[in-house]
Amino acid sequence: MNILYILLFPEEVQEKLNELRKSIHKQIPDLEEYIGYQMPAFKYKNKPLIYFAGYKKHIGFYPGAEAIRNFEKQFKELNYKFSKGAVQFPIHKKLPLDLIINIVKFRKLEIEQKKS
After folding, report:
1. How many CA atoms does the CB half-sphere of 105 hold within 13 Å?
2. What CA–CA distance (Å, rounded) separates 26 from 108?
3. Closest CA to 33 of 58, 10, 78, 3
4. What are 15-67's pLDDT values in tens digits?
5. C-alpha distances in angstroms, 49 versus 20, 33, 66, 77, 92?
6. Helix ranges (DSSP H) in the chain
């Protein structure tokens, strides 16, 4: 499903979206892919984990408000634009894959703790 979404973009954006998707899958293989809010997304234990989207100049990454608050310092240090529930990774910069994986792991733990 997410592949069809990715194919809608210019090659440069496709490369970033594929890199993001594959990196998340490689590090955390037990996630389910789907489309939510017209964006590629991952579920964990049938709960929305993160969303991501392609744009002309950036990749939008939507982990939710708590994750944004938790990683706000890193976003500021790396000079990324962010809002209450999203962060923008510029197309012309290398994706911060370690940071992205840490955010996904944070969200996974958040879901696990809510189930307890």
Report:
1. 10
2. 15
3. 3
4. 999 999 999 999 888 899 999 999 999 999 999 999 999 999 999 999 999 99
5. 14, 10, 12, 24, 26
6. 2-6, 11-27, 65-77, 97-115
> What pLDDT, on the 0 to 100 scale, is given for residue 116?
53
Prediction pTM value? 0.93
Give the C-alpha separation, 102 to 116, whole Å: 21
Residues 42, 60: contact at Cβ < 8 Å?
Answer: no
The DSSP bridge partners found for residue 52 are 61
Given a contact cutoff of 8 angstroms between Cβ atoms, the answer to whether 89 and 12 are in contact is no
Residues of the chain above pLDDT 90, percent: 90
Class of domain 2-115: alpha beta
Dig out the tokens for 56 from the structure. 């002309």
CA distance 74 to 116: 29
